[in-house]
Task: structure prediction
Amino acid sequence: MFWDRNPGLRDHWLLSDVATEAIQPLLYVGRMVHFDAGQVIFWEGDASNRIYLLTAGSVQVSAISAAGNVLLAVASANDVLGEMGVLDGQPRSGTAMALEPTSAYVVPAEQFLELCERSPLVAMRILALLTARLRRNNGRLCELSGAWVTGSSEDLPAAGPASPNNESLAAQTPSELAETQPG
Result:
């Protein structure tokens, strides 16, 4: 049986307790892949045509910026890799490289999106994952940009049309917001 050949997949948090009928189509189109330490899984800018359910090992995700190579995240066994691009159809936002021997169950994007439609549990789990990552990155952004904020939260502008060109300040970056502030 499939689960006997891929025990790490049955225990993967994204699929645990999901109805077999909902998962079954993935079992026919997905495949288990293995990566050596240092092997690139996908490159920044590649098409986002599959999602990876990590079952063993760890992966570093990094992106190129003006300052050089920036570490975005480290994913390990029982994590999900490549979900952002699969969900929004945009190219990969970073390069993923195995840090050690790594195994993953790879699912084509279309079939994963169909699974999200069939299983509200999987869809909610992906939303929870994205929310947790957004909160973590918001915290990192606050730590990195703490120098630009002075005063209390009452000193920050309210969201809504408040900039000279009537754009919402809530959508601006900290550096853009600082440029619009007097003084």
